[in-house]
Amino acid sequence: MTSTTPPTPQESTAIAAAQAIVEEFALFGDWSERYQYLIDLGKKLPDLPAELKTEEHRVQGCQSLVWMQGHGDATRLDFEAISDSAIVSGLIALLLRVYSGRTAREIMDTEPEFIRAIGLAKALSPTRANGLAAMLKKIREQAAAQLQSN
Question: Could you report the per-residue pLDDT of 13-44, keeping only the tens digit for each?
């Protein structure tokens, strides 16, 4: 685990974060602009320390290399993640904005509808869509495990 304090989420709820993402993507006219926005978001992600870039933290099912770590408890789960792909790092930034810093219950109760709403589900290649699903699964599994342990 890193020694830095996790950032406070930009929006007060996961639903508010998802809605803000939908509104931001609506500003772009086409997918080339949206992909550039994803790349820009990904560039803003902090890198993970080398000790977290291990098989234990690797998200299986992603064509790109993706490492993700979650920590916390049912009252607050924080996630850190990075990819070797610029676009996938942008996808990670979206997921972290919605789900990181939330309670396990809020994570479980917030369906990733924003992905469909911004057209991402149709715009991604099958391998990137599989990777996105794998990242979502890892986040939700960690939240479910925290709820079960309480």
Answer: 999 999 999 999 999 989 899 999 999 999 99
